[in-house]
């Protein structure tokens, strides 16, 4: 299939499509277990992790709770979970309805874009929440590369405004929905970089001690799966475009995500942001088998094309990102830097680690530059300003890492040094430099 259609082609000739169609059907026949992988992926949407009911009832019962993005997939699931604990008042604030997710009886639904500080502040001033769950975000990595300005103003500056509004309205607890992609110490990808910057802003707010903060990292959520939606559309006609044949990814359900946010909120602390992730996400899903299973279920003859990696997706992880010594013991959504300081789960279904950046709690020099670029509205300028902030955050994170952790990451990375991209070489140089300084 790779020989018939090399990667990187925007259009495929009819003859090539015909050959790919025939080869795809042969591949379906050769991999009869693909249907089981597709079924396993869909079944993950029913999975949950459970929560301590007495603690939740004590925390949320009679409280005023505000959820940003409460009309989306995870947000609506979280709203339903919170409603079960009988809050005094439950309010969603979002730009509007998203994807037809169910509304919760008795809840209130306010309209405001988190990028609109005035309107957002007015909602917070009226609600005066005790607990804030910040779920609103631009979540599509591919779309983030096309809509750079919208992604950064939502995920970075919008998060800063939610934090400010929560503090000004006197909220006691703030819980932030992050992403597993934020485990990367540096990324050029707009979505990843924006959510990592958001984690830093929330960690900075936690350091001020005005409220208790926590964060939760999600991986691929089955219920609102971008991949699944694209596969369903492609099976109706066209071409299934996969980046590569060997991609695997972890997945979780919207229910697990909502329950993770609740557990994170129970673990919120003043002074430090603790980020939580599910320890055991099960066996990762094979993308190729998922696609073949979807084709088989739809009885579709749509061809598969291995198109190569689109902007917004990395083809190779930084070699020092994971430590084999902790594999299976901590969540795969924690990097080697984070696993080294994670709390042991002690039978709980989640892991937590403190998010720490060096340099105190003063805004970084690159942040005003990012704000200025966003004010100018130029996507290219926003991308470059975000990249500058990302490199600053890498150094700030490395300054808080122990010498032993830095040496371990260097040892894991050096065998692959000749294969590293320029960006990964720069990461390795920064790790070495901080290791020497330590």
In short:
The chain is α/β, with parallel strands linked by helices and 438 residues long. Helix content is 46%, strand content 13%.
Describe the structure.
The chain has 438 residues and is α/β, with parallel strands linked by helices. The chain has two domains: 1-361, Rossmann fold; 362-437, no CATH class. The chain has helices at 14-30, 34-43, 53-60, 73-83, 117-127, 141-146, 148-169, 190-208, 226-235, 254-266, 287-298, 336-339, 366-376, 379-398, 403-413, 422-437, and strands spanning 64-68, 89-94, 108-111, 131-134, 173-179, 212-218, 220-221, 240-242, 248-249, 251-252, 273-278, 285-286, 304-306, 350-355. The mean pLDDT is 94.
Short key terms for the protein model shown above:
2 domains, alpha/beta, Rossmann fold, two-stranded parallel sheet, 14 strands, 438 residues, globular, 8-stranded mixed sheet
Q: Please report the number of helical segments.
A: 16
- CATH class categorisation of the largest domain: Alpha Beta
Q: Which shape, going by the Cα principal axes?
A: globular
Please state the average pLDDT score: 94
Tell me the structural class: alpha/beta
- Please describe the biggest sheet, giving its number of strands, its sense, and whether it closes into a barrel: 8 strands, mixed
List how many beta strands DSSP finds: 14
Question: What's the architecture of the largest domain, going by CATH?
Answer: 3-Layer(aba) Sandwich
Count of folded domains: 2
| CATH H level, superfamily name of the largest domain | NAD(P)-binding Rossmann-like Domain
The assembly state of the depicted protein chains is single chain
Order of strands side by side in the largest beta sheet? 3-2-1-4-5-6-11-14
* End-to-end separation: 50 Å
Strand content: 5-15%
Gyration radius, in Å? 22 Å
